[in-house]
Amino acid sequence: MKFTKIQGCGNDYLFVDLTGGRTLPGGVEGAPELARRMSDRRFGAGSDGLILVTDPPAGSGADAGMIMFNADGSRGAMCGNGFRGLCKLVHERGIARKPEIRVMTDAGMRTGAVHLRDGRVESVTVDMGVPGLNRGDLPMEGPAGPAIESRIKAAGREIVGTAVSMGNPHFVVFVEGDVDGYPVESVGPAVESHRLFPHRVNAEFVQVLSRNEVRQRTWERGSGETLACGTGAAAVLVAATPSSPKCLINRPFTGPRERCPD
Fold it and tell me: In terms of residue numbers, what domain contains 119?
């Protein structure tokens, strides 16, 4: 089986091209186990997850389909950096050599605008869609409506965070002090598996550097701490609004690489 490894800001995924009627050994039903085995950083290829590039659903108007699995084999509805990698692969292989690529994900249709240098895709700008702020969008247990600056207890701490859906669920926590010293390795999994999130949740831990810049660490649902998270960066910006309509997302591992417009 052939696969391609692509990273976006250090957030790396393995891509398997199933377009043109190609099939996966064991079928899509076997993809969760395949994702677990391939994503293992000691005994597999090593990645934050597996993404299947598929033919688009008939009549959808999409150029391709995307099925995403986390490193633990769980299926995710959307992945920002994985989506960017998919657009690069689709464009450079001639599956859809277009300035804007439409992809059907489990979160619905998403569009990526490709930016070229010497005929190769250098970067991709993703339309992340409209964020969801209601508990039911994640889902999150509790009364109907938004969960903004909501208090939960995790890993022996009281944590204040905002729930945001970017097609996948996020809980954004603004921390005091240097986020590099925050115990993400213990608090992250406790938030991910908190009883309020029946489908689990991605957790962002954010340090405010200035009115226009923050520093982010992410504990991804099903993958652990990752070097970056595209939907997470978007969720952080949503949670920070309206205090800063434009913000530079600065990640400890990869530096300031993503600027999020309003």
Answer: 4-127
Hey, CA dihedral for 140, 145, 148, 152, is it positive or negative? negative
Question: What crossing angle do the helices spanning 230-240 and 80-92 adopt, rounded to 10°?
Answer: 130
Give me the sign of the Cα torsion angle 200, 108, 128, 134.
Answer: negative
The catalytic residue among 9, 87, 229, 260 is 229
Q: Please list the pLDDT of the chain residue by residue as tens digits (262 residues).
A: 899 999 999 999 999 999 999 999 889 999 999 999 999 999 999 999 999 999 999 999 999 999 999 999 999 999 999 999 999 999 999 999 999 999 999 999 999 999 999 999 999 999 999 999 999 999 999 999 999 999 999 999 999 999 999 999 999 999 999 999 999 999 999 999 999 999 999 999 999 998 888 999 999 999 999 999 999 999 999 998 844 445 566 655 444 444 443 3
Q: Active-site residue 229, yes or no?
A: yes
Claim to verify: residue 196 and residue 241 sit in the same structural domain: yes
| Domain CATH code at residue 104 | 3.10.310.10
Catalytic residue among 9, 79, 87, 260: 79
Look up 79 and say whether it is catalytic: yes
Q: Which of 127, 145, 166 is the last residue of a domain?
A: 127
The pair of structure tokens assigned to 119 is 């005929």
Helix, strand, or coil (residue 45): coil
Which among 70, 100, 127 is the end of a domain?
Answer: 127
